Amino acid sequence: MSANLKRSLFIASFILPTFIVYCIFTVYPILRGIYISFTDWSGGSETMNFIGLDNYRELIHDPIIYKAAYNDYFIVFWKVIGIMLIATYFAVALTRLKIKGSAFYRIVFFFPNVISVVVIGVIWRFVYNPKLGILNSLLSFITGKPVETPWLGDSDYALWALLPPAIWAGIGFFMILLIAGIMSIPAPLYESAEIDGASQWKQFFHVTLPLLWEQLKVSVVLIVLTSLNGSFIIVSIMTYGGPDNATQVLGYRLFEKAFGTYQMGYASAVGVLILVLSLLTTVVMRWLMRRESVEVS
């Protein structure tokens, strides 16, 4: 047996088990879901009749789907802006500005990431409670008048009300990711910038931002993917897609069809739509954020 063959077998012995697990728990469910999307399976019966593109035709004519897709991208857009601005600010503040107790603040900001999304949803439902919520109590104190705004029960406010908990829950993880990127930037670059008289703003735009671009790009893609695939969790805890489908998202629509009306075929078609949108959005985001990598020797 040649040395190259032995090396290949050695590498394969590590890759193959992981590849098999990936195929079983990722590739097969995706392919199975695509197949089910072409059937009328209810989920509880053994019969699974092939109906072609009927589920996709129903999908195209479902007005709630368009509303849900809009809400998904609405949440994605504001989550990207909110999380990236706040996480970047705190990452720079806790590294470059030499704030005392930075380790403590890192723990505080990361704390929401160790809490279940269900707990986060329940906490913010109490915050938005019309009569007992902290938000209305604070507004009543500021205005001097009783405020009982139904934040989650009014279609004008409900979707916006989902953004603070969604953004709050994601800041800590991406802050830590960006802190790691900033700490990997060589200190002599900042020292040279200071000698040249560069302010903190100029150091950020001309040193930190270019060398942090790869971490920023990865962060944006992760936020987009986790939002398109996971927004339904916070929706299912806080608003159930209401009021009047104002907070409906594709993931929750899938859940409703699969476990509410037992239309597994249609739900699978929604799942395929989520998969396609996720892939297309990722490709577009990577294209929009493309640029040459800046390397430091």
UniProtKB/TrEMBL annotation:
The keyword Ligase does not apply. The chain crosses the membrane at residues 9-31, 73-92, 104-127, 157-180, 220-242, 262-288. Pfam families: BPD_transp_1 (PF00528). Keywords: Cell membrane, Membrane, Transmembrane, Transmembrane helix, Transport. Residues 69-285 form the ABC transmembrane type-1 domain. Its main location: membrane. It is found in: Cell membrane. CDD domains: TM_PBP2 (cd06261). Signal peptide: none annotated. It is a multi-pass membrane protein. Belongs to the binding-protein-dependent transport system permease family. This is Sugar ABC transporter permease.
